[in-house]
Amino acid sequence: MNAPVALAPELLTQLTAIVGENRIKTDADSLQNWGRDHTKHFDPNPSVIVFPSSTEQVQAIVKLANQFHVAITPSGGRTGLSAGAVASNGEIVLSLDKMNQVLDFLPADRMVRIQAGMVTEQLQDYAEAQGMYYPVDFASAGSSQLGGNIGTNAGGIKVIKYGMTRNWILGLTVVTGKGDILRLNKGMIKNATGYAMQHLFIGAEGTLGIVTEADIKLERQPHDLQVLVLGVPDFAAVMPVLHAFQSKIDLTAFEFFGELAMQKVLDNGHVQRPFASECPFYVLLEFEAPYEPILDAAMEIFEHCMEQGWVLDGVMSQSLEQAQSLWRLREDISESIAPFIPYKNDISVLISHVPAFIADIEAIVEQNYPDFEICWFGHIGDGNLHLNILKPANLSKDEFFEKCQQVNTYVFDIVKKYDGSISAEHGVGMTKKPYLGYSRSAEEIEYMRALKQVFDPNGIMNPGKLFDLKA
């Protein structure tokens, strides 16, 4: 562990004046806790944690950081998987934990204005209390914050129907790296007045500025959701099953996982195997079925898939409780494999390329990781796969990560071959930064650097993430 970075006494005094003594932390435990995310690759080493409660306080902190030439790392729920929120070089960690309120609700616009520190599940619960629905959902919804979701353009389990976080942002209030407050788009659906700058901050991982408030679009609540878990014989069967169901039914989710992932979840003892058959792979489908003909169609498709040999066994939820239990088979995977210190790849391609892409990736994995446990799962209905390599007990963390990083280039060569993404929904941060060129051209990266220079001319906003300031 690195020694804490000393903070200039005058800077600490002025930070305290902005937020108050009870909103500053410099003790070792706090620096470790708020200076990290869920990655294990980098050791946190911030200088101070500050907890502003308003956009104006955030602005004052950013201006102070510019004055003292000290970097800022924005911090939300710290559930990230790319080291995008790790403060490893004496940064000020600006936590949005205290900015978690609903600011306004406009039912006619189906819009809620929130502070960016609101936890994702808190927004989901608020929407439900208004008889509405916020559909962006994932395993960390109970602790991730909306600001972090926006910073990484989070996706999750409902993207096949509802899209990414970007689809639900109607406007943003941001504090730029220069310390300016911008109110972008102001919640409007229709606004043809030049550049839609709010979209620059979605997926920017805090490198342009800090999102402090967001105008969030809401949706009607889904009705009579049904869940199917199907066992399939191999990768090749997954896409025909998807196409068969999508041709007749509007799916709200189509998830995928392997038998190893299933076993890790079952080992925790919270859920049971959905049916007796052990299958190499599984898909989980969800759809609305408010009318009997939709259920009939689903059963007909299931029987057709069985006849074609694409499905070996399956079960449909018969109650809300059973539907939730079936979902846990998928949603509990990340938590279940966490003790094995997984090396995560979060990759995506066009759905049309998925079968060939998977075949190529599987060949690379079998050739280079013959002795490692490989845990496959993902949102395959939108072309997103999570490839998790589990650390063997006989390897140190550093030895394990080094081995995985050696093979990254082979995996990302395949991603580039299919014009895919090296990070579908987890962001780039520091862990994927060396590989950004596999998904973005040199020209694109130069334009991104130029944009950062405009919004953050002193380079204080989350430096070292996404790309380096100089090529």
UniProtKB/TrEMBL annotation:
Signal peptide segment: none
EC nos: 1.1.99.39
Keywords: FAD, Flavoprotein, Metal-binding, Oxidoreductase, Zinc
Molecular function in Gene Ontology: (R)-2-hydroxyglutarate dehydrogenase activity; FAD binding; metal ion binding
GO biological process: respiratory electron transport chain
Ranges where the FAD-binding PCMH-type domain occurs: 42-221
Cited Pfam families: FAD-oxidase_C (PF02913), FAD_binding_4 (PF01565)
InterPro entries recorded: FAD-bd_oxidored_4_C (IPR004113), FAD-bd_PCMH (IPR016166), FAD-bd_PCMH-like_sf (IPR036318), FAD-bd_PCMH_sub2 (IPR016169), FAD-linked_Oxase-like_C (IPR016164), FAD-oxidored/transferase_4 (IPR051264), Oxid_FAD_bind_N (IPR006094), Vanillyl_alc_oxidase_C-sub2 (IPR016171)
UniProt-listed SUPFAM superfamilies: FAD-binding/transporter-associated domain-like, FAD-linked oxidases, C-terminal domain
Required co-factors: FAD
Top class in the EC scheme: oxidoreductase
Catalytic reaction annotation: (R)-2-hydroxyglutarate + A = 2-oxoglutarate + AH2
Aminoacyl-tRNA synthetase found in the keyword field: no
Subunit-structure text: Homodimer.
Cited PANTHER family: D-2-HYDROXYGLUTARATE DEHYDROGENASE, MITOCHONDRIAL
Family, per entry: Belongs to the FAD-binding oxidoreductase/transferase type 4 family.
Protein name as annotated: D-2-hydroxyglutarate dehydrogenase
